[in-house]
Design a protein that fits this description.
signal, LPXTG-domain-containing protein, transmembrane helix, transmembrane, membrane, about 400 residues, 16 helices, 2 strands, binds 2-acetamido-2-deoxy-beta-D-glucopyranose, elongated
Amino acid sequence: MLGLWDGGFIRSRLLALVLTGILLSRFFPAVDALRTAEGSPCADVCHKSSSNTTSSEIACLDASYNATKGRTFEKCVDCQLRSTYDNPSTGESDVNWGLYNLRYAFSTCVYGFPHSVSNVSSPCPVACDGIRPAIEFDLTNPSSFNFDAWCSTSSFADNIVNTCEFCYNLTTTQVYLANFLESIRYNCHFRTTSGKAFDIAPSRIFTQVLLPSSMSLTTSTPGGSNVNLPLVIALPILGFIIILCALTICCFFFIRHRRKRMRRNRHHNHLYNRWNDTTISTPKQGNSGWPEQQYPFASGGYGPGFSDSVDTPIHAPGPWAEQQMHAPGGYGNGLGFMDNDGRTQQLEYGYYQSGLAHGRAESPAVHPQAVPLTGPHAVEPEKHQNPQ
Ligand SMILES: *[C@@H]1O[C@H](CO)[C@@H](O)[C@H](O)[C@H]1NC(C)=O
Ligand SMILES: *[C@@H]1O[C@H](CO)[C@@H](O)[C@H](O)[C@H]1NC(C)=O
Ligand SMILES: *[C@@H]1O[C@H](CO)[C@@H](O)[C@H](O)[C@H]1NC(C)=O
Ligand SMILES: *[C@@H]1O[C@H](CO)[C@@H](O)[C@H](O)[C@H]1NC(C)=O
Protein backbone atom coordinates (compact mmCIF):
# COMPACT_ATOMS: atom_id res chain seq x y z
CA MET A 1 0.00 0.00 0.00
CA LEU A 2 2.78 2.40 0.81
CA GLY A 3 4.51 2.03 -2.49
CA LEU A 4 1.45 2.68 -4.55
CA TRP A 5 3.45 4.22 -7.37
CA ASP A 6 6.35 1.89 -7.17
CA GLY A 7 6.04 -0.59 -9.98
CA GLY A 8 7.28 -3.44 -7.84
CA PHE A 9 4.40 -3.20 -5.49
CA ILE A 10 1.58 -2.92 -7.97
CA ARG A 11 1.24 -6.65 -8.34
CA SER A 12 1.09 -7.22 -4.64
CA ARG A 13 -1.34 -4.36 -4.23
CA LEU A 14 -3.61 -5.83 -6.89
CA LEU A 15 -3.43 -9.17 -5.14
CA ALA A 16 -4.30 -7.50 -1.87
CA LEU A 17 -7.12 -5.64 -3.51
CA VAL A 18 -8.60 -8.78 -4.95
CA LEU A 19 -8.35 -10.55 -1.64
CA THR A 20 -9.75 -7.76 0.43
CA GLY A 21 -12.32 -7.00 -2.22
CA ILE A 22 -13.62 -10.51 -2.00
CA LEU A 23 -13.37 -10.97 1.73
CA LEU A 24 -13.46 -7.68 3.51
CA SER A 25 -14.65 -5.01 1.12
CA ARG A 26 -17.62 -4.18 3.30
CA PHE A 27 -15.46 -3.51 6.32
CA PHE A 28 -12.24 -2.25 4.84
CA PRO A 29 -12.89 -0.67 1.46
CA ALA A 30 -9.79 -0.39 -0.64
CA VAL A 31 -9.65 3.34 -0.27
CA ASP A 32 -6.95 4.26 2.07
CA ALA A 33 -5.05 7.18 0.79
CA LEU A 34 -6.81 10.41 1.47
CA ARG A 35 -4.47 12.57 3.31
CA THR A 36 -5.36 14.40 6.45
CA ALA A 37 -3.60 16.22 9.23
CA GLU A 38 -1.46 14.20 11.57
CA GLY A 39 -3.43 13.10 14.57
CA SER A 40 -6.68 14.17 12.99
CA PRO A 41 -9.95 12.73 14.24
CA CYS A 42 -10.77 12.13 10.58
CA ALA A 43 -7.95 9.66 10.17
CA ASP A 44 -10.34 6.77 10.75
CA VAL A 45 -12.85 8.00 8.20
CA CYS A 46 -10.17 8.66 5.63
CA HIS A 47 -8.73 5.16 6.18
CA LYS A 48 -5.36 6.58 6.43
CA SER A 49 -2.75 3.96 6.04
CA SER A 50 -0.88 6.23 3.66
CA SER A 51 -0.24 9.90 4.13
CA ASN A 52 -0.70 10.69 0.42
CA THR A 53 -3.87 11.33 -1.46
CA THR A 54 -3.88 9.29 -4.64
CA SER A 55 -5.81 9.43 -7.86
CA SER A 56 -7.11 5.94 -7.40
CA GLU A 57 -9.38 7.22 -4.63
CA ILE A 58 -11.00 9.85 -6.77
CA ALA A 59 -14.47 9.52 -8.27
CA CYS A 60 -15.27 11.80 -11.14
CA LEU A 61 -18.94 11.21 -11.84
CA ASP A 62 -21.61 12.47 -9.46
CA ALA A 63 -23.23 9.07 -9.61
CA SER A 64 -19.99 7.51 -8.36
CA TYR A 65 -20.56 9.24 -5.03
CA ASN A 66 -23.31 6.75 -4.47
CA ALA A 67 -20.72 4.00 -4.87
CA THR A 68 -18.10 2.94 -2.39
CA LYS A 69 -15.21 4.94 -3.75
CA GLY A 70 -17.04 8.22 -3.97
CA ARG A 71 -18.79 7.71 -0.69
CA THR A 72 -15.52 7.17 1.10
CA PHE A 73 -14.06 10.29 -0.42
CA GLU A 74 -17.14 12.25 0.53
CA LYS A 75 -17.11 10.99 4.10
CA CYS A 76 -13.45 11.82 4.50
CA VAL A 77 -13.74 15.33 3.10
CA ASP A 78 -16.97 15.89 4.99
CA CYS A 79 -15.18 15.06 8.21
CA GLN A 80 -12.21 17.22 7.37
CA LEU A 81 -14.16 20.30 6.45
CA ARG A 82 -16.24 20.08 9.61
CA SER A 83 -13.22 19.42 11.76
CA THR A 84 -11.66 22.15 13.84
CA TYR A 85 -8.53 20.09 14.34
CA ASP A 86 -5.33 22.00 13.88
CA ASN A 87 -1.95 20.38 14.39
CA PRO A 88 0.18 23.02 16.12
CA SER A 89 3.49 21.34 15.39
CA THR A 90 3.00 20.99 11.63
CA GLY A 91 0.64 23.93 11.12
CA GLU A 92 -1.70 21.69 9.14
CA SER A 93 -5.40 21.62 9.76
CA ASP A 94 -8.06 19.19 8.67
CA VAL A 95 -9.74 21.92 6.65
CA ASN A 96 -6.48 22.46 4.73
CA TRP A 97 -6.35 18.81 3.83
CA GLY A 98 -10.03 18.60 2.98
CA LEU A 99 -9.66 21.47 0.53
CA TYR A 100 -6.48 19.95 -0.81
CA ASN A 101 -8.34 16.70 -1.45
CA LEU A 102 -11.02 18.60 -3.33
CA ARG A 103 -8.41 20.33 -5.46
CA TYR A 104 -6.72 17.00 -6.04
CA ALA A 105 -9.99 15.43 -7.13
CA PHE A 106 -10.70 18.33 -9.47
CA SER A 107 -7.27 18.16 -11.04
CA THR A 108 -7.47 14.42 -11.44
CA CYS A 109 -10.88 14.46 -13.08
CA VAL A 110 -10.54 17.58 -15.22
CA TYR A 111 -6.88 17.59 -16.24
CA GLY A 112 -5.95 14.00 -15.57
CA PHE A 113 -3.17 15.23 -13.34
CA PRO A 114 -1.28 13.69 -11.67
CA HIS A 115 -3.03 10.59 -13.02
CA SER A 116 -5.98 10.16 -15.29
CA VAL A 117 -8.73 8.00 -13.88
CA SER A 118 -11.59 8.72 -16.22
CA ASN A 119 -12.18 9.43 -19.86
CA VAL A 120 -15.46 11.25 -19.56
CA SER A 121 -15.97 13.15 -22.78
CA SER A 122 -16.77 16.77 -22.01
CA PRO A 123 -15.96 20.22 -23.37
CA CYS A 124 -15.36 21.51 -19.87
CA PRO A 125 -11.64 20.69 -19.54
CA VAL A 126 -11.12 23.10 -22.43
CA ALA A 127 -13.18 25.77 -20.69
CA CYS A 128 -11.19 25.18 -17.52
CA ASP A 129 -7.78 25.05 -19.16
CA GLY A 130 -6.86 28.63 -18.21
CA ILE A 131 -6.63 27.84 -14.51
CA ARG A 132 -4.85 24.55 -14.99
CA PRO A 133 -1.42 25.84 -13.84
CA ALA A 134 -3.01 27.29 -10.72
CA ILE A 135 -4.92 24.13 -9.86
CA GLU A 136 -1.87 21.95 -10.37
CA PHE A 137 0.44 24.27 -8.48
CA ASP A 138 2.35 22.25 -5.84
CA LEU A 139 -0.33 19.58 -6.02
CA THR A 140 2.14 16.77 -5.71
CA ASN A 141 4.09 18.45 -2.97
CA PRO A 142 1.53 19.58 -0.41
CA SER A 143 2.60 21.12 2.84
CA SER A 144 1.37 23.63 5.35
CA PHE A 145 3.40 26.26 3.50
CA ASN A 146 1.75 25.92 0.14
CA PHE A 147 -1.88 24.97 0.68
CA ASP A 148 -3.05 28.37 -0.45
CA ALA A 149 -0.14 29.18 -2.72
CA TRP A 150 -2.11 28.25 -5.80
CA CYS A 151 -4.52 31.15 -5.12
CA SER A 152 -1.79 33.70 -5.72
CA THR A 153 -0.50 32.23 -8.96
CA SER A 154 -0.87 34.37 -12.06
CA SER A 155 -3.13 31.90 -13.80
CA PHE A 156 -5.74 32.00 -11.07
CA ALA A 157 -8.49 33.97 -12.76
CA ASP A 158 -11.96 34.34 -11.37
CA ASN A 159 -13.56 34.74 -14.76
CA ILE A 160 -12.15 31.43 -15.94
CA VAL A 161 -13.30 29.83 -12.71
CA ASN A 162 -16.76 31.16 -13.45
CA THR A 163 -16.70 29.80 -16.99
CA CYS A 164 -15.44 26.47 -15.76
CA GLU A 165 -18.09 26.19 -13.08
CA PHE A 166 -20.77 27.24 -15.52
CA CYS A 167 -19.69 24.51 -17.89
CA TYR A 168 -19.74 21.77 -15.26
CA ASN A 169 -23.04 23.05 -13.98
CA LEU A 170 -24.45 22.39 -17.42
CA THR A 171 -23.33 18.78 -17.39
CA THR A 172 -25.79 16.72 -15.47
CA THR A 173 -23.14 14.17 -14.56
CA GLN A 174 -20.30 16.23 -13.05
CA VAL A 175 -21.84 19.12 -11.18
CA TYR A 176 -19.92 18.12 -8.05
CA LEU A 177 -16.71 19.21 -9.74
CA ALA A 178 -18.05 22.75 -10.09
CA ASN A 179 -18.73 22.76 -6.36
CA PHE A 180 -15.25 21.43 -5.61
CA LEU A 181 -13.81 24.32 -7.59
CA GLU A 182 -16.08 26.85 -5.95
CA SER A 183 -15.16 25.59 -2.51
CA ILE A 184 -11.44 25.93 -3.04
CA ARG A 185 -11.89 29.33 -4.64
CA TYR A 186 -13.99 30.43 -1.69
CA ASN A 187 -11.10 29.63 0.60
CA CYS A 188 -8.84 31.74 -1.58
CA HIS A 189 -11.08 34.74 -1.04
CA PHE A 190 -12.00 34.00 2.56
CA ARG A 191 -9.26 32.03 4.26
CA THR A 192 -10.50 29.71 6.93
CA THR A 193 -8.80 30.69 10.16
CA SER A 194 -7.08 27.81 11.91
CA GLY A 195 -9.21 26.15 14.52
CA LYS A 196 -12.39 26.87 12.59
CA ALA A 197 -14.52 24.64 10.42
CA PHE A 198 -14.97 25.46 6.75
CA ASP A 199 -17.70 28.00 6.05
CA ILE A 200 -19.49 25.93 3.42
CA ALA A 201 -21.29 22.88 4.72
CA PRO A 202 -20.00 19.75 2.95
CA SER A 203 -23.57 18.68 2.25
CA ARG A 204 -23.79 21.68 -0.05
CA ILE A 205 -20.62 20.68 -1.85
CA PHE A 206 -21.58 17.07 -2.51
CA THR A 207 -24.78 17.90 -4.27
CA GLN A 208 -25.81 18.69 -7.82
CA VAL A 209 -26.90 22.19 -6.88
CA LEU A 210 -24.23 24.70 -7.77
CA LEU A 211 -22.87 26.78 -4.92
CA PRO A 212 -23.31 30.53 -5.21
CA SER A 213 -20.24 32.21 -6.60
CA SER A 214 -17.91 33.59 -3.98
CA MET A 215 -17.36 36.47 -6.36
CA SER A 216 -20.79 37.78 -5.51
CA LEU A 217 -19.99 37.21 -1.85
CA THR A 218 -16.83 39.30 -2.08
CA THR A 219 -18.88 42.29 -3.06
CA SER A 220 -21.88 41.76 -0.83
CA THR A 221 -20.78 40.02 2.34
CA PRO A 222 -17.96 42.26 3.53
CA GLY A 223 -19.87 45.34 2.42
CA GLY A 224 -23.04 44.14 4.08
CA SER A 225 -21.75 44.85 7.57
CA ASN A 226 -19.80 48.07 7.20
CA VAL A 227 -20.05 49.85 3.88
CA ASN A 228 -23.73 49.35 3.36
CA LEU A 229 -24.83 50.75 6.69
CA PRO A 230 -24.42 54.43 5.76
CA LEU A 231 -25.87 53.61 2.37
CA VAL A 232 -28.88 51.98 3.96
CA ILE A 233 -29.45 55.13 5.97
CA ALA A 234 -28.63 57.56 3.18
CA LEU A 235 -30.56 56.01 0.33
CA PRO A 236 -34.09 56.52 1.67
CA ILE A 237 -33.22 60.11 2.61
CA LEU A 238 -31.80 60.69 -0.84
CA GLY A 239 -34.86 59.14 -2.40
CA PHE A 240 -37.12 61.34 -0.31
CA ILE A 241 -35.19 64.46 -1.31
CA ILE A 242 -35.37 63.50 -4.96
CA ILE A 243 -39.10 62.93 -4.74
CA LEU A 244 -39.51 66.25 -2.92
CA CYS A 245 -37.52 68.06 -5.61
CA ALA A 246 -39.55 66.42 -8.34
CA LEU A 247 -42.78 67.42 -6.63
CA THR A 248 -41.58 70.99 -6.18
CA ILE A 249 -40.65 71.28 -9.83
CA CYS A 250 -43.97 69.78 -10.86
CA CYS A 251 -45.84 72.23 -8.62
CA PHE A 252 -43.86 75.15 -9.97
CA PHE A 253 -44.67 74.32 -13.56
CA PHE A 254 -48.26 73.54 -12.78
CA ILE A 255 -48.77 76.83 -10.97
CA ARG A 256 -46.99 78.73 -13.70
CA HIS A 257 -49.17 77.05 -16.28
CA ARG A 258 -52.28 77.88 -14.30
CA ARG A 259 -51.21 81.48 -13.89
CA LYS A 260 -50.45 81.83 -17.56
CA ARG A 261 -53.83 80.47 -18.48
CA MET A 262 -55.58 82.66 -15.97
CA ARG A 263 -53.70 85.71 -17.21
CA ARG A 264 -54.63 84.84 -20.75
CA ASN A 265 -58.24 84.43 -19.81
CA ARG A 266 -58.27 87.64 -17.81
CA HIS A 267 -56.66 89.44 -20.69
CA HIS A 268 -59.28 88.16 -23.05
CA ASN A 269 -62.01 88.95 -20.62
CA HIS A 270 -60.69 92.43 -20.29
CA LEU A 271 -60.56 92.88 -24.03
CA TYR A 272 -64.01 91.54 -24.36
CA ASN A 273 -65.40 93.94 -21.78
CA ARG A 274 -63.80 96.78 -23.60
CA TRP A 275 -65.36 95.54 -26.80
CA ASN A 276 -68.66 95.49 -25.10
CA ASP A 277 -68.19 98.99 -23.83
CA THR A 278 -67.14 100.44 -27.13
CA THR A 279 -69.92 98.79 -29.00
CA ILE A 280 -72.43 100.15 -26.60
CA SER A 281 -70.98 103.61 -26.77
CA THR A 282 -70.77 103.49 -30.56
CA PRO A 283 -73.65 101.34 -31.57
CA LYS A 284 -73.59 102.23 -35.26
CA GLN A 285 -71.35 99.91 -37.13
CA GLY A 286 -71.64 98.48 -40.60
CA ASN A 287 -73.72 95.30 -40.81
CA SER A 288 -72.45 94.52 -44.26
CA GLY A 289 -70.17 91.86 -42.86
CA TRP A 290 -73.01 89.79 -41.51
CA PRO A 291 -72.49 86.57 -43.49
CA GLU A 292 -68.82 86.50 -42.61
CA GLN A 293 -69.62 86.75 -39.00
CA GLN A 294 -70.66 83.17 -38.89
CA TYR A 295 -67.15 81.99 -39.47
CA PRO A 296 -65.24 84.06 -37.01
CA PHE A 297 -67.75 83.01 -34.46
CA ALA A 298 -67.38 79.35 -35.19
CA SER A 299 -63.64 79.56 -34.94
CA GLY A 300 -63.70 81.34 -31.66
CA GLY A 301 -63.50 84.92 -32.83
CA TYR A 302 -67.09 85.82 -32.32
CA GLY A 303 -66.30 89.33 -31.22
CA PRO A 304 -67.12 91.16 -34.44
CA GLY A 305 -70.37 89.34 -34.85
CA PHE A 306 -71.32 90.29 -31.43
CA SER A 307 -70.47 93.89 -31.89
CA ASP A 308 -72.82 93.96 -34.81
CA SER A 309 -75.52 92.32 -32.93
CA VAL A 310 -75.41 94.89 -30.21
CA ASP A 311 -75.95 97.82 -32.44
CA THR A 312 -79.70 98.18 -32.07
CA PRO A 313 -80.85 96.71 -28.84
CA ILE A 314 -83.90 98.86 -28.68
CA HIS A 315 -85.57 97.58 -31.82
CA ALA A 316 -85.37 94.03 -30.92
CA PRO A 317 -88.68 92.25 -30.93
CA GLY A 318 -88.92 90.32 -27.74
CA PRO A 319 -90.52 87.05 -28.81
CA TRP A 320 -88.17 86.57 -31.72
CA ALA A 321 -85.37 85.14 -29.66
CA GLU A 322 -87.61 82.65 -28.04
CA GLN A 323 -88.87 81.63 -31.41
CA GLN A 324 -85.36 81.05 -32.53
CA MET A 325 -84.65 79.00 -29.50
CA HIS A 326 -87.05 76.40 -30.71
CA ALA A 327 -86.09 76.79 -34.29
CA PRO A 328 -84.89 73.51 -35.81
CA GLY A 329 -81.20 73.43 -36.42
CA GLY A 330 -80.61 76.32 -34.15
CA TYR A 331 -80.73 74.19 -31.09
CA GLY A 332 -79.03 71.16 -32.48
CA ASN A 333 -76.09 73.10 -33.77
CA GLY A 334 -75.36 74.60 -30.45
CA LEU A 335 -73.23 71.65 -29.44
CA GLY A 336 -70.17 73.75 -28.86
CA PHE A 337 -71.92 75.39 -25.97
CA MET A 338 -73.14 72.43 -24.04
CA ASP A 339 -73.07 73.73 -20.57
CA ASN A 340 -75.07 73.90 -17.41
CA ASP A 341 -76.03 77.41 -18.20
CA GLY A 342 -76.12 76.55 -21.86
CA ARG A 343 -79.41 78.21 -22.36
CA THR A 344 -77.88 81.49 -23.21
CA GLN A 345 -75.28 80.01 -25.42
CA GLN A 346 -77.70 77.81 -27.18
CA LEU A 347 -79.85 80.75 -27.75
CA GLU A 348 -77.10 82.83 -29.16
CA TYR A 349 -75.72 80.16 -31.41
CA GLY A 350 -79.14 79.19 -32.49
CA TYR A 351 -79.70 82.71 -33.46
CA TYR A 352 -76.71 82.78 -35.73
CA GLN A 353 -77.50 79.50 -37.29
CA SER A 354 -81.06 80.47 -37.91
CA GLY A 355 -79.77 83.75 -39.18
CA LEU A 356 -77.99 81.80 -41.83
CA ALA A 357 -80.95 79.64 -42.49
CA HIS A 358 -83.24 82.56 -42.90
CA GLY A 359 -80.94 84.26 -45.31
CA ARG A 360 -78.29 86.94 -45.03
CA ALA A 361 -80.83 89.64 -45.63
CA GLU A 362 -82.39 88.99 -42.27
CA SER A 363 -82.27 92.10 -40.29
CA PRO A 364 -79.48 92.26 -37.81
CA ALA A 365 -81.83 94.24 -35.68
CA VAL A 366 -82.75 90.95 -34.16
CA HIS A 367 -79.29 90.37 -32.77
CA PRO A 368 -79.58 92.53 -29.76
CA GLN A 369 -81.98 90.09 -28.26
CA ALA A 370 -79.01 87.90 -27.54
CA VAL A 371 -77.09 90.59 -25.82
CA PRO A 372 -78.69 90.69 -22.45
CA LEU A 373 -78.53 86.93 -22.30
CA THR A 374 -74.94 86.50 -23.39
CA GLY A 375 -73.63 89.48 -21.56
CA PRO A 376 -72.95 87.94 -18.18
CA HIS A 377 -71.69 84.72 -19.70
CA ALA A 378 -69.63 86.30 -22.37
CA VAL A 379 -66.56 84.28 -21.51
CA GLU A 380 -68.25 80.95 -21.42
CA PRO A 381 -68.40 80.21 -25.12
CA GLU A 382 -64.79 81.21 -25.45
CA LYS A 383 -63.83 78.70 -22.84
CA HIS A 384 -65.56 75.94 -24.66
CA GLN A 385 -64.07 76.74 -27.93
CA ASN A 386 -60.55 76.59 -26.55
CA PRO A 387 -60.68 73.66 -24.23
CA GLN A 388 -57.48 73.62 -22.20
C1 LIG B 1 3.97 10.99 -0.46
O1 LIG B 1 4.37 11.74 -1.63
C2 LIG B 1 5.64 12.28 -1.52
C3 LIG B 1 5.91 13.12 -2.74
O2 LIG B 1 4.96 12.94 -3.70
C4 LIG B 1 6.69 11.16 -1.36
O3 LIG B 1 7.96 11.71 -1.22
C5 LIG B 1 6.34 10.38 -0.13
O4 LIG B 1 7.21 9.28 -0.01
C6 LIG B 1 4.93 9.85 -0.19
N1 LIG B 1 4.58 9.22 1.05
C7 LIG B 1 4.09 8.02 1.08
C8 LIG B 1 3.80 7.48 2.42
O5 LIG B 1 3.80 7.41 0.06
C1 LIG C 1 -27.60 8.75 -5.26
O1 LIG C 1 -28.65 7.87 -4.90
C2 LIG C 1 -29.83 8.50 -4.47
C3 LIG C 1 -30.82 7.43 -4.08
O2 LIG C 1 -30.22 6.25 -3.87
C4 LIG C 1 -30.37 9.37 -5.58
O3 LIG C 1 -31.51 10.05 -5.14
C5 LIG C 1 -29.33 10.37 -5.99
O4 LIG C 1 -29.80 11.13 -7.06
C6 LIG C 1 -28.06 9.68 -6.38
N1 LIG C 1 -27.04 10.66 -6.66
C7 LIG C 1 -26.45 10.74 -7.85
C8 LIG C 1 -25.48 11.81 -8.01
O5 LIG C 1 -26.69 9.95 -8.75
C1 LIG D 1 -12.54 4.89 -21.29
O1 LIG D 1 -13.20 4.62 -22.52
C2 LIG D 1 -13.11 3.30 -22.95
C3 LIG D 1 -13.76 3.16 -24.30
O2 LIG D 1 -14.08 4.40 -24.81
C4 LIG D 1 -13.76 2.37 -21.96
O3 LIG D 1 -13.64 1.05 -22.36
C5 LIG D 1 -13.13 2.57 -20.61
O4 LIG D 1 -13.81 1.82 -19.64
C6 LIG D 1 -13.16 3.99 -20.20
N1 LIG D 1 -12.46 4.19 -18.97
C7 LIG D 1 -12.97 4.84 -17.94
C8 LIG D 1 -12.11 4.95 -16.75
O5 LIG D 1 -14.08 5.33 -17.98
C1 LIG E 1 -26.79 25.72 -12.73
O1 LIG E 1 -27.72 24.86 -13.34
C2 LIG E 1 -29.02 24.96 -12.83
C3 LIG E 1 -29.90 23.98 -13.58
O2 LIG E 1 -29.20 22.87 -13.96
C4 LIG E 1 -29.55 26.37 -13.02
O3 LIG E 1 -30.82 26.49 -12.44
C5 LIG E 1 -28.60 27.35 -12.36
O4 LIG E 1 -29.04 28.64 -12.62
C6 LIG E 1 -27.21 27.16 -12.90
N1 LIG E 1 -26.32 28.06 -12.20
C7 LIG E 1 -25.50 28.90 -12.82
C8 LIG E 1 -24.67 29.78 -11.98
O5 LIG E 1 -25.44 28.95 -14.04
